[in-house]
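To whoever is on call:

I kicked off a structure prediction for a single chain this morning and the downstream step that reads the tokens threw a length-mismatch warning. I double-checked the sequence; it's 145 residues and nothing unusual in it as far as I can see. Pasting both halves so you can look.
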Amino acid sequence: MSGMTPIVKVVARIVGGFVFLFGCYVILYGHLSPGGGFAGGAVLAAGFMLLRLAFGTTAKQEKSTSISSSVFESTGGLMFLLIAILGLFVGGYFFANLFPSFGTPGLLVSAGSIPLANIAIAIKVGAAVISVFVLLASTKYIFKE
């Protein structure tokens, strides 16, 4: 892909930053409002797809994106599992809170290990959505006519 017109590229640069910022907000405040790791990871992946469609890619970039998204997906899953297992050792049961309950209810620091789990899920979901996108976008390299 060679990319789109300069107008689309400028708008994608501006909008892409807001999409990434909103995705981070959804991930970090998912324990206080609707959202969380799954929704935030999907929003971050959508921002990545927006930039990829606007600026285009080469076959080499798609290959490296595929490899790195696979690594990130595995890392997110391992982080989530590690948070769950650490709860077993710290609190005595699976997914126990890793941190003491402190802070004012309704604030980020009052959620214990939930934001860490949201971040791990967001990494896994975002990488999976990006993998599917790269696979679907690169079919023209797979099925040459």
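Update from on-call: the warning came from a stale cache, not from the record. Cleared it. Sanity check on the structure: The first helix runs from residue 6 to 28.
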